[in-house]
Amino acid sequence: MTPSVRLQEMIRVIRSARTQGEERGIIQRECADIRSQFRQGDNGERSHSLAKLLYVHMLGYPAHFGQMECVRLIASPRYSEKRIGYLGAMMLLDEKQDASLLITNSIKNDLSHSSQYVQSLALCTLACMGSAEMCRDLAPEIERLLRASHSYIKKKATLCAVHIIRKVPELAELFTPSARTLLSEKNHGVLHGAVVLITELCERNPDTLVQFRKAVPELVQIMKGLVTSSYSPEHNVAGISDPFLQVRILRLLRILGHNNDTASDAMNDLLAQVATNTDSSKTAGSAVLYETVLTIMDINSESGLRVLAVNILGRFLLNNDRNIRYISMTSLQKIVQTDHNAVQRHRGTIVDCLKDQDTSVKRRTNGRVITVIHSALFHLQSCTGTVTCPCAGGDVRDETVPNLIQLITTASELHCYTVHKLYRALIKDIAQQSLVQVACWCIGEYGDLLLKGECEEIEPVQVTEDDILDALETVLQSHMSSPATRGFALTATMKLSTRITDNVDRIRSIVSIYGSCIDLELQQRAVEYNALFKKYDHMRYRSAVLERMPVMDKNSPGHTNGDTSGEIKEPDTSKPKPVEAGLLSEPASQVCDLLDLLGGTDTPLQPSPAPTSTPTTTSSADLLNLLGGLEITPGEKFSLYRKMYMFGIITIKKKKKKKRNSKNVTVTLIASNSTQNDITNFTLQAAVPKSVQLQMKAPSGNVIPAHGLGQVTQTVLLNNPNKASLPCFRFVQLSFLLN
């Protein structure tokens, strides 16, 4: 590329570069040529060279060596060179550069230049990069130009005055008298600058509010002229006359009318006119309406006007633009405390926003819905009868506890907030049994989140391990706690043994106490939990058994948190239950719970296909299940199935057909293994009611071959001397090692 190419040619060559390295080579050669042009002095090419350097600067390459050339060009008498010099100063200089002080005198001289275009260059540069020292030196010149005859100069001087006030707030008083007179201008640019200047003065110095509140009638007249004016191509944007100026005036009116009845009364009619006559189908109209709503809500406006503002926000919620829905929801959150009844009319639309795909809109909606729920609960406290079912206390239905637990498990982002709130409710009052049960369940599952004390939604409170255990012991020992509530508390205490580190011995002591409890359900739980401490603690089964519950299916039979009174559903034997892929990758120390009892068919359930991969380390599993509701009927077969390592079948069947109330019953239990590894050390234990005598024969073996290649059978004799109807097995325990 030749040294004398123009800017357009240089841009073309740079854009045609195929690689980054080729582009850097072109830039380096051109920068060397620019330096040589600067060293040659006044040869008529300096402005062209600086223009090329500014383009290089825009591409991100170093251009600091052109700063002094900017100073020289600004001092040039030629307008073409001044223009490039001032442009370079705005791009290459800032208030931190020492070279910026060198152009102060040139700017002062140009502010008094006979040409308005030269004056505008100086004003733009000062407003862009003027330092505090430059602003102090040139402020009188700017105040003089605010009274200039040309609207072009007034507009730029006004914006320059705004920059000076932001840099040197104590100079605000210098521009206060001139700012009021600018409101009489007809030029929209000057009016826009004047409104911005007055807004800045009012925000920086509240003492000026009294003076500028006298200008409210003038601002109202200007705004009315914009609303009712005919079409003007110069200022029309999407059918709205100069929406930028309208928004600025509304913001200034909001400041002037805040906590002032006189100013608010003067603008009430105007705000009603703007709210009813502005078209919200376009973004420009929505912007004006939104500023109108904010102004109505921030001044001492009439009640009817506030209802109109809330209705506008309600219409915004139906807008297709997600940004408009978001700002509407944000505004409703701010005003719901002061205009609750008006917001309540739109609660249906607000709730519908929970279905919005935009997460930011959902988050804003959640806060608004919580407010609605609080109001509804406050109202329900004064109701009686069945209407109070949504409230806590004794009127809660039985299914509320498992339903609420199911909802909590699905909302993972609210686990920390939920456990903190429920813990506080628990230590405050334990009279509401349903609430206590949910609180105990959450503390057992998410006690580690409670100990961390980190929750963004509420004020953090430091909770110790002793505090949590004290609360659970209070529930266990309280006379108000039902047996079911104590069961929740005991299970929560046991689960905390894997979530805390310093009080495991205290938990072991609490559990052992209830091993002799008069309540059989609580006693059984305590005995089983105590076994985890003694028999299996060294094999790390406890952490696997007591890990967090997965997300619950709302219709799953295990939806009652361990309650065994639920109905056992019959399976569809035509389709074997699929093995969840996620379970195949569980660690080998995972303990398998046999929770599903599938029976009621003459055809045994077929084993599931062997998993593609199985852990190779030795593992042991303790399968515990309370088989409630299973009555033995002659000739029936019952299958036990679990979607984990024990992919086998336990079949219970009668050998001989006898009457239902027969004295002796023989039951054969058959176990098979569909995994890829053999199961060893297989044992079976069972328990029956006291009215039935149980005799267990020796099993055929204790090893179950893999891939269903063999079975282990064991015969159980049941003696029914009273000839009563045979009830279920009250307890079945299986244990084995998975190689």
UniProtKB/TrEMBL annotation:
SMART domains: Alpha_adaptinC2. Residues 566-578 have a biased composition (Basic and acidic residues). InterPro entries: Adaptor_Complx_Large_Subunit (IPR050840), AP1_complex_gsu (IPR017107), ARM-like (IPR011989), ARM-type_fold (IPR016024), Clathrin/coatomer_adapt-like_N (IPR002553), Clathrin_a/b/g-adaptin_app_Ig (IPR008152), Clathrin_app_Ig-like_sf (IPR013041), GAE_dom (IPR008153). Its main location: membrane. It is a peripheral membrane protein. Residues 550-580 are annotated as: Disordered. Coiled coil: none annotated. GO terms for biological process: intracellular protein transport; vesicle-mediated transport. GO terms for cellular component: AP-1 adaptor complex. Belongs to the adaptor complexes large subunit family. Gene3D superfamilies: 2.60.40.1230, Leucine-rich Repeat Variant. Keywords: Cytoplasmic vesicle, Golgi apparatus, Membrane, Protein transport, Transport. It is found in: Cytoplasmic vesicle membrane; Endomembrane system; Golgi apparatus. It comes from Cyprinus carpio (Common carp). Pfam families: Adaptin_N (PF01602), Alpha_adaptinC2 (PF02883). Transmembrane segments: none annotated. This is AP-1 complex subunit gamma. Residues 633-739 form the GAE domain.
